[in-house]
Specification:
Structural class: alpha+beta
CATH class of the largest domain: Alpha Beta
Strand content: 25-35%
Number of domains: 2
Radius of gyration: 24 Å
Largest sheet: 9 strands, mixed
Helix content: 25-40%
Order of helices and strands: HHEHEEEHEEEEE
CATH topology of the largest domain: TBP-like
CATH architecture of the largest domain: 2-Layer Sandwich
Distance between the termini: 57 Å
Number of helices: 4
Length: 192
């Protein structure tokens, strides 16, 4: 009388154990292993956030940085975009970072020197920690400011590329980056 249910339970347990060992277990178990691996590799647990929200945050930071510079000129057009979080998801399926490289050039108001000085004063007042303020490690040794926002962990790299060579445009290059995020469950990230 009990033989059939016990045999059935043993068969079910055997299938479950072999699925777990082969890595084809339940979606929740697989997701948990992936999250633990990401946390181990990155040193933090990536926050779950929809891509448009994360891109909007980075665009907002870029806009504020331009305001803090206190200059007016031509600004490159591209917006922030999600990219591969290479350390944990080279296939761009679940984890991503947001990056926004842009620059300001052909100033109509202010100078590049003023822009860098304004950032040196304003970034700490706005909660950013400047981790580098000095020459780039290049032959030109152009000025560079690198800062991190301790609460959101966004990073900011600002470089004044003042080559002094004829035919080259003087500009300030800005790069705003996020940490790795994880998309909400059920979201497809891999965009072609």
């Amino acid at each position: 009388m009990w033989a059939l249910p016990i045999v059935g339970l043993i068969a079910l347990a055997t299938v479950w154990v072999s699925m777990e060992e082969s890595g084809s277990g339940s979606g929740a178990a697989s997701m948990s292993r992936q999250q633990n691996r990401a946390k181990d590799v990155l040193g933090y647990e990536p926050e779950v956030q929809a891509v448009p929200k994360a891109e909007g945050e980075v665009n907002g930071i870029s806009s504020r940085v331009l305001d803090w510079m206190g200059v007016r000129g031509q600004v490159t057009e591209p917006s922030a975009a999600a990219h591969v979080c290479r350390k944990v998801d080279p296939d761009f399926e679940t984890y991503y970072v947001v990056n926004h490289p842009w620059s300001v050039f052909e100033l109509k108001k202010g100078t590049f020197d003023e822009a860098m000085d304004n950032l040196r004063r304003t970034l700490p007042d706005k909660g950013w920690k400047i981790t580098k303020d000095g020459p780039m490690d290049t032959k030109a040794a152009s000025p560079e400011i690198i800062a991190v926002q301790p609460d959101s962990h966004h990073t900011l790299t600002v470089q004044w590329l003042n080559s002094g060579k004829s035919g080259r445009t003087e500009l300030i290059s800005v790069d705003v980056d996020s940490r790795c995020f994880r998309v909400p469950e059920g979201t497809e990230l891999n965009r072609s």
